[in-house]
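Data availability (excerpt). The following record was deposited with the supplementary files.
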Amino acid sequence: MYLQNDNARISDFFGFDWTFRLDEEQSYRPVQLPHDWSVEYPFDENAPTCGSGGYVKAGIGWYKKTFKVDPKAKGKKVFLLFDGAYMCTTVWLNGKELGHHAYGYTHFEFEITDCLFFDEENVLEVKVDNSQQPNSRWYSGSGITRDIWLKATNEIYIPTNGTFIRTEGEQVKISTKVEMAQQKNIRLVTTLLDHENTVCGKAEMEITNPGGYDQVITIQNSQLWSDKNPYLYKAVSELIHEGTLIDKYETVFGVRTVEFDPDKGCLINGERVKLNGVCLHHDGGSVGAAVPKKLWHRRLLLLKEMGCNAIRASHNPPDTGLLELCDELGFYVMDEAFDEWEQLKAKTAGSNTHESRGYSEWFKDNYLADMEAMLYRDRNHPSVIIWSIGNEVPEQTMEDGHILAKKLQDICHRIDPTRLCTQGNDQIFAEPKPATDDFLQILDIVGYNYTGRWRSRAETLYYDDKIANPNWIQLGTENPAAAGIRGDYRMDIPVSPWQRSYFAVPVYVGKLLRYTMSHDFVAGDFMWTGIDHLGESNWPSRSSSSGPIDTCGFVKDHFYFYKSIWNREEPMVYVFPHRNLDELKGTVLPVLCYTNCTYVELFVNGKSYGKKATSYPLYGMTETYNHFDSPSVAANTDDLFLSWDIPFESGNMEAVGYINDKEACRFKVQSAGKPTKIKAAIDVDSLQANGRDIAHIEITFEDENGIQNPIASNLVSIEIEGSAELIGIDNGNPNCHGSFKGNTKTAFNGKLLGIIRAKKDKGEITIKVSSDALEPAIIKIISV
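Predicted structure:
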């Protein structure tokens, strides 16, 4: 039973006890929300979603839930809030249609008070129509893919997203919207709490009418929010009538300033910050688009370790949980509205023979509501520092395209005057039809997708536009990442903008990265992508291999390329490829090394192949002639990495990093024998018995000497006993077509990931990982 407490405001998670069926199926089956049906069916080369959508099943899905509410809730206003459903969603309660919502990435809410039964069972039905395919240039998922909530308030209340908090110095301005049907004397009390829940400010005012009300509170010695210090405050807004609390609404916020300057780039709290960013699509690999918050937490921690400090939500408003984590962990976010405006984009990946569909069909009727939904929901997140009104829209090259760009940017400025806007432009200096000057001049921040794609721009990058338009704020909104398939060391991979052989990758992306890091006027860059995502692929691939982290969250070699440049606080050295390659002894192969040390010496089976150093970062003299803050070093390369061409032999390979002639770190790779032992590691000691908590199981294989085998391809099964269930299994191989929802899969290049979810009863959980004739690995945890 729902709405079972006496609080002034009730918010119940509404994702349990649903049933589901596809339109062509006869019977319903139990599911839990969030839910993505597309990952539950086999990959199919002929699926209408095509390679763009990941070769998955889409179609029409039906959800049903029967439920009761506490009769004591009668007299309250009751709302049903969907955080997101993909797409074209229609909702009925007790046979009455509540409404329809087209876009798959914005929240929507219905007041259901008048059609809700308080004394008998209610029936809620939801139709999700994702049948018009292909309608996305990447994997979208299908279903009620984000959280759903049942909420109750009194007649006088603060609506969803009804507060707006702005900070200037130590002053906090809180705007609060209050809904009431009849005039009453209400006291609005806003209390500010610091990270330890200590009161740090308070304001009160008397109101009698519905509307918006402003209060200003000063926080003495406020802590500033940044990526290095993500300090959060909370505003608690209370409505009190005749001494009785009738509503309580909480808003998390941070105190910080954001500026963008044509010469200095991005400044946070007055200090210059380079946006070391990645584009992130919204799927979570084996769980599809129904991504648990804890899965994002694991991924964001990896990106943090890599030195990433900024996320571009590509190319749609993200899940609320992701933004909450960016607030908590310290990431700067580009919050993006659309990939498509009025002009349809072709969904060409994967030899598409279908007529493309897309959001452009719904844009004119829905763009305003969808923009407002994103802006009102996200404008209190301190992590959000830029609004993006679109990505690679064809309107950028059209004569009147700037008119629509200005209209969308004006909506952002109206609802949130504190942040600047951009758009990911992929046609700057393009041929035969470049982005128009009118379009680019409209934008607060000129966003560059694939800066060096055309002619001399491959060398000059941002420089030509800096000279021609010195007042432009320039930002790399999307550029190629150091990418590829994890553990793929083929020497003959055909060169494309997205893939090339391992030794060529850091050369390809390194020039732009070095330019970005060393030129203050370039505010930063968002590489495409930070993590591999489903879709945007060509069969037999069902996912993109565009990031330094795969769909499992396993890091690739090039993860350490970015870490060596972006995260220079702790000495590191990394060398590859491994010593289990299928190569003849004596074959000359490139050995690559990523490091932030001054220089590195490479050893193979004890033999030194010499010391090498990179020139990055270069610094000139300081203070007086011939004075250097750090000792000069004889660099071998201007590249951002080191390499040796040496004859291949099995055994061990070791890189030793030196700083100021002292050993700072070392990294060793050893040949492994055949797998004799399964290693299964879980990232928690216990799960919360709430039906939602998850854990990750990382599975690897060792030889008899305890050395991890990097090429193991054993068939693995995962069995769960107790209060948990397996919700995803993946190996990171983009060409693997095995089910994400079974309990068996082959390891890929030595690794496999399982994701388990707690049930609602507490107790012991036993996880058994088996493979062939090897002794199973057993993990025991508890659900509490």
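Summary of structural features: The mean pLDDT is 96.
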